[in-house]
């Protein structure tokens, strides 16, 4: 393999570890991580949008929607994290590079922050009804999920499509 300055890390890793990352179920090949990763990636920002709709329009339906979406996102996040680790171990043989270490660390952070937001709302569903320090901290904690999800998606994109030149 000829290495040039333009060779991407993802391309190098794919050539070294060429086996497929899909789990075979009979004749079908299903990319479980690609399926499970998109649930929390989509649900967290939508749930957070419902927080703002609840604050603007003061409707219980928006609060309920936020909570149910957070439950689903919080339940799918560990599955996404686990399937990502399985694919990393299978496709890249668990080789530790900075990108995989970051994905694992930020995946854990997403699990913790998402779970904390969901549990906090479950224990104190009136958190959005009050204005105060706890309300602001709760909203900021929820908003902090978005950059985490975006960064994890960015790292995943770098693995799938290659590193920028």
Question: Your description of this structure?
Answer:
By secondary structure, this protein is mostly helical. The protein has one domain. The chain contains six helices and two strands; from the N terminus they run αββααααα. A two-stranded antiparallel ribbon has the order 1-2. It is elongated and about 55 Å long. The model is unreliable at 21-27 (pLDDT under 50).
The number of domains:
1
Strand-and-helix sequence, N→C?
A: HEEHHHHH
Q: Major sheet: order of its strands?
A: 1-2
- End-to-end CA span: 19 Å
Q: What share of the residues does DSSP label as strand, in percent?
A: under 5%
Spans where pLDDT lies below 50 across 5 or more residues = 21-27
Query: What is the count of β-strands?
Result: 2
Could you state the oligomeric state of the chains shown?
single chain
Give descriptors for this structure.
two-stranded antiparallel sheet; 2 strands; 165 residues; mainly alpha; single chain; elongated
Short description, anyone?
The chain has 165 residues and is mainly alpha-helical.
Layout of secondary structure:
Blueprint: H1 9-16, E1 23-25, E2 28-30, H2 32-57, H3 60-91, H4 98-123, H5 133-143, H6 145-161
Antiparallel strand pairs: 1-2
Helix pairs in contact: 2-3, 2-6, 3-4, 4-6
């Amino acid at each position: 393999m000829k290495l040039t300055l333009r060779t991407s890390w993802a391309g190098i890793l794919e050539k070294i570890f060429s086996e497929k990352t899909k789990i075979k179920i009979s004749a079908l090949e299903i990319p479980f991580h690609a399926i499970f990763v998109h649930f929390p990636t989509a649900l967290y920002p939508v749930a957070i949008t419902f927080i703002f709709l609840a604050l603007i329009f003061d409707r219980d339906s928006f609060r309920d929607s936020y909570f149910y979406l957070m439950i689903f996102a919080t339940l799918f996040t560990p599955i996404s994290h686990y399937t990502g680790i399985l694919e990393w171990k299978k496709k890249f043989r668990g080789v530790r590079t900075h990108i995989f270490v970051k994905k694992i660390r930020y995946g854990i952070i997403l699990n913790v922050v998402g779970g904390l937001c969901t549990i906090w709302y479950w224990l104190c569903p009136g958190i959005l009804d009050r204005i105060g320090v706890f309300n602001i901290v709760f909203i900021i904690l929820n908003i902090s999920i978005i950059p985490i999800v975006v960064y994890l998606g960015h790292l995943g994109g770098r693995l799938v499509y290659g590193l920028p030149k």
